[in-house]
Amino acid sequence: DYISSKSTLIWEEIGEVDENYAPIHTYQVCRVMEQNQNNWLHTNWILTEGAQRVFIELKFTLRDCNSLPGGVGTCKETFNMYYYETNDRALKESRYIKIDTIAADESFTELDLGDRVMKLNTEVRDLGPLTRKGFYLAFQDLGACIALVSVRVFYKRCPFLVKSLAEFPGTIPGSEASQLVEVVGRCVNNSLPLYEPPRMHCSTEGEWLVPIGKCVCQPGFEEINGSCQVCKVGFYRSLLESLACSKCPPHSVARQTGATACSCEDGFYKIESDPPNMACTRPPSGPRNAISNVNETSVFLEWSIPMETGGRKDVRYNILCRRVLPDGRGLEECGPNVRFLPRRVGLSNTSVMVADLQSHTNYSFLLEAVNGVSELAKDHTKQYVTLNVTTNQAGTSHPDLLQSAAGLPTPTAITVNHYTHFVTTPFHFPDVRARTSAGYGAFSRRFEFQTSPYCEYIGGTQIGGATHDPLGGIASVSSIDARVCFFSAVKFPGVRTYIDPLTYEDPNQAVHEFAQEIDVSFISIERIIGAGEFGEVCSGPLRLPGKREIQVAIKTLKAGYTEQQRRDFLWEASIMGQFNHPNIIRLEGVVTKSKPVMIITEYMENGSLDTFLKKNDGQFTVIQLVGMLRGIASGMRYLSDMGYVHRDLAARNILVNSNLVCKVSDFGLSRVLEDDPEAAYTTRGGKIPIRWTAPEAIAYRKFTSASDVWSYGIVMWEVMSYGERPYWEMSNQDVIKAVEESYRLPGPMDCPEALYHLMMDCWQRERSNRPKFDEIVCLLDKLIRNPSSLKKLRSPFVTLHLCSSCGVENIVSYQTVGEWLDSIKMGRYTELFMEGGYSSLETVAQMTSEDLRRVGVNLAGHQKKIITSIQEMRVHMNNTNSAVNI
Ligand code: ACK
């Protein structure tokens, strides 16, 4: 309906039938015999409805020029599509902007027409960012034979969605290809956001991604089938964290629906700190079996717990001491001179020592039991037991419990629970004894603990196991504590050791040991930058309170993961968090308390090294490339010093920032290799990235820093050849065989001799002969300081390479013109060379610039590249004398 035929007289509106004889409506033009055609067909004004990116699907047929008698000279097989954006209908044809030239995948001939085969072409183009209310499309014919069958204009949108009790409106995506539009959801009726408003991200493909946060039913309601239903009578729901309405606990009731708490039955009570699911309780009955032991002017009182605790665990005892006045004059409170040990009220033990009473005097003690709700139960009659005693009237044979209570404690062992994981250097702690008000205790057994350079721990809670008494306190233990930290802060030489997260029974503990938990509200997800093994990789700013905003990469864990997947995902953070080096990707923290689970790392603007090099083929100086290699070697030196073996070192696992700094990334265990698309199964069942892996690691899984050095050599080769695939299209099996037979990758084009030498050293069969990473860093530093050492280039025409360690001659040569052209990235000319009669390297070696032009190499840059290589080839042929395959 949008096509306007009025604008043109040349394009004709024609009713036709398709191959199924169904009527179709087309616009056709076919001025193939006439010169200078410029025929326009434009649409009516199309409203964007707010879409910033629209898609245009064209269906058309196009006549094959060869099938037109005599028309070949002027006939075209393409047409152009244009657009023009405007806020109103006013059409200015001169303002059209070209979208693309459209060619047919299938054109048809007269013969096809006879057969009624339509050969309908479908082409889709996208258009954006659009900023105005609407636009026109136009089709320009320059002399083709076209029938435009349909033009479908559409945009994609994320549909209305209800997820986790939050509604997300239908949303139009952003205009840029990888952009994400963040949408805050609205909680459905009777629900509230849990911690933060729920958010989702609308992708350009019209898909909802990366859900964050959620809504939960408000108290008094529970979630049933995606909506919030009120709690029934007798049920309640108080906390957002609990899911369903619960039955009221004992001695409580909910008389109406929608209860957020239950109220206590008469005679039962609750205090504020009682959890909502706790039963209502009442005051206790009185203490039982009270006895007294008099010793001079002291009396020791002891009793048993009450029969009825009222349903609570917080029973305490209060003592009321009264002196019996002589001559029946009644009772008098004991006054401040009488001492109670440990105290008079709020006793948690069932005994008390009362001292400094008057001699030869009658006393009456009231023992009262109370609990947390006694204060509330004013009408509850208090239950006492009374004990009457007379001082100086008892024997001395009862146990002296006071002395016992103040006895000397002996710490028998101290365990530094948490920190025993930091297995580094054993450390002898001096002998320890504890001190109470009563004096010093005995020395402890000698003990030993091991500590870590990562100690950040201060405070007493980590230390347990010191015996202590109820009266004496454990004041001295905190001083032990301080010493533990003091010693932990001392640096031990050579203790930077990587800790395998497997040493932790609970992987979550390992994550939080090494990674900071980040609140998701500090992160904004702005765009998707790639697909990781576990979910999207996104980027956006991280704003930690009190810190400057930084750009971060956000790896997410897809919804619906298993516990094992979550563990594997966070594994990487447990490893990365232990490293701190400028050439190792830095972990900012993890998000595990909300969903999705995320790993936050520094953002590397240029993405992974292999893609980056391919994109910038030939753009860097040798010094820049060596600088990148130096960085990678330095990161690897750090990892090997830490005792960490990477196992998957490859350019795809190196990230590059805007300053061309390369950082090693992708830390996981061997099982993480399962997810590397380069990893292939070996005969022994493990998955290994064959092309990057040392022979001993492939053959018998001997992964060491020396096998990482082999991989480093391959990375050097990838870097110097700007992201070429190692061993090109050879199969994995062929690679294993070739390496076994001492074949090594040839030096990349324009690679300095010194660097190729280093690569070959990394690929020594005997792993102890390979250089160590510190030697590699050292050598690269030397080369950088002395750039003339990088001048001597390695020719790709070296036919013999003596592999020093294996003693076998390693033959590297070009067999065919095709291989040679491929090696200098001019493979596209192979066919032209063949057609021009240059099918052997001998004939190629004779070629001049003129010959090159004649075969069809027209670009000056390509001519130069090929001629330079031919000149080298000639030098080499003269040098070797034996024309090995050349
Ligand atoms: O080659 P790339 O752009 O770089 O595509 C992959 C993708 O995410 C999947 O891993 C990119 N990527 C991963 N981590 C980061 C990071 N820290 N900074 C920038 N890009 C990253 C990687």
Q: How many H/I helical runs?
A: 17
CATH topology of the largest domain: Transferase(Phosphotransferase), domain 1
> Care to count the β-strands?
48
Using only C-alpha atoms, the radius of gyration works out to 42 Å
Q: Can you tell me the residue ranges where pLDDT is under 50 for at least 5 consecutive residues? A: 1-7, 395-495, 670-674, 797-812, 880-886
Reading off the top of the CATH hierarchy, the class of the largest domain is best stated as Mainly Alpha
Protein name: receptor protein-tyrosine kinase
Membrane topology: Single-pass type I membrane protein
Organism: Salarias fasciatus
Binding site for ATP: 529-537, 555
Question: What does it look like?
Answer:
The chain has 886 residues and is of the alpha+beta class. The protein folds into six domains: 12-154, Jelly Rolls, CATH 2.60.120.260; 161-217, Immunoglobulin-like; 288-391, Immunoglobulin-like (Sandwich); 501-602, Phosphorylase Kinase, domain 1; 607-790, Transferase(Phosphotransferase) domain 1 (Transferase(Phosphotransferase), domain 1, Orthogonal Bundle); 817-882, DNA polymerase, domain 1. Helix content is 20%, strand content 27%. The chain has 17 helices and 48 strands. The strands form 16 sheets. Strands 1, 4, 5, 7, 8 and 10 form a six-stranded antiparallel beta sheet that branches. β26 and β27 form a beta hairpin. α4 (507-514) runs parallel beside α5, α7 (622-641) runs antiparallel to α12 (773-785) and α9 runs antiparallel to α11. The two termini are 66 Å apart.
